[in-house]
């Protein structure tokens, strides 16, 4: 198993991840609504496939963002995280 060096995210990157998380969530919801609107697979097969692909992409992006934010929360003991985060 390779050693992975965990580096804390910069405050700007952290803010961007938190902002984009809502965009990805909206994309997932719109993709689900689009997928549910194509109830007849014979009439809208291609549109349903495209909506499904969008759903997979937005779900993957949302998952990656959530994992990055979760990993950043676990690095509170790291000296880089202590230097980069503000003391409240």
Notable characteristics:
mainly alpha; 70% helix; DUF202 domain-containing protein; transmembrane; 88 residues; elongated; transmembrane helix; membrane; single chain
- Rounded to an integer, what's the Rg over CA atoms? 18 Å
Based on helices, strands and strand pairing, what is the structural class? Answer: mainly alpha
Give the termini distance in whole angstroms: 37 Å
Q: Could you list the spans in which at least 5 consecutive residues all have pLDDT below 50?
A: none
Beta-strand proportion: under 5%
Provide the succession of SSEs.
Answer: HHH
Keywords: Membrane, Transmembrane, Transmembrane helix
Transmembrane segments: 21-38, 50-70
Protein name: DUF202 domain-containing protein
Structural notes for this entry:
The chain is 70% helix and 0% strand. By secondary structure, it is mainly alpha-helical. Helix 1 (11-37) packs antiparallel against helix 2 (45-73). The chain starts with 10 loop residues before the first helix and ends with a helix. It comes from [Kitasatospora] papulosa. This is DUF202 domain-containing protein.
Compact summary:
This protein has 88 residues and is mostly helical. The chain is built from three helices and no strands. The chain is elongated.
Fold blueprint:
Blueprint lengths: L10 H27 L7 H29 L5 H6 L4
Helix pairs in contact: 1-2
Protein name: DUF202 domain-containing protein
Keywords: Membrane, Transmembrane, Transmembrane helix
